[in-house]
Amino acid sequence: MDGSDISDVPTRNCDMIGRYVTLYQATDNRGTCGDFHCDGSTAMDFCEVLVMACTPNVKYGANCDMNCNQRKCASSSASCDVQTGNCGNGGCRPGYQGVDCTQACSSGDNYGPNCAKLCNQRHCVSSSSCNIQTGVCDAGGCTAGWIGVDCAQGMSQEYVGSSNAKDISFGVRPKMSTYPIVFYIMLPKID
After folding, report:
1. What pTM does this model have?
2. Maximum alpha-carbon separation in the chain
3. Using one digit for the tens of pLDDT, what is the confidence trace for 25-73?
4. Among 14, 79, 103, 166, which residue's Cβ finds the most Cβ atoms within 10 Å?
5. Contact (CB, 8 A) for 104 and 123
């Protein structure tokens, strides 16, 4: 007998974080005791309670089947939410995205932290693969007027003065003003 023939066997799944489990039984037993004297009070004849929880900062997920150490959080000391695996405010390492930072960027489409940069917005000299972490232009560098590992940072036209960035011997600044302004010094090309 497994109790399936008893009509009032409650089953509760509680998907929440808590500190205590308290059971209440509010069934009125008045007149249901057969040949025994019933005073009308409630009674809990038997109870089986199974409380399951993930080990904090070790496992997460509905069935505690995901490992916290397999997430790609930006911070190695990021907390691990027991339900979602969320890394907190630090976000994901470059090349990864998602609430738990386990989803790699779509190869050829996105790159960088939280996959926020677009591969098709780089200015590579020739067709280049798109590394999901850095977006590096691995074949030939950047087109004229663009700098950076991913060739996504534009140079101000007033300083370019040449179709080949290697010929620039004057300070170069980014197109958009940022504080502090960063100047790059590039030496003349030596043949």
Report:
1. 0.57
2. 109
3. 666 655 555 555 566 566 565 666 666 778 889 999 988 999 999 999 9
4. 79
5. no
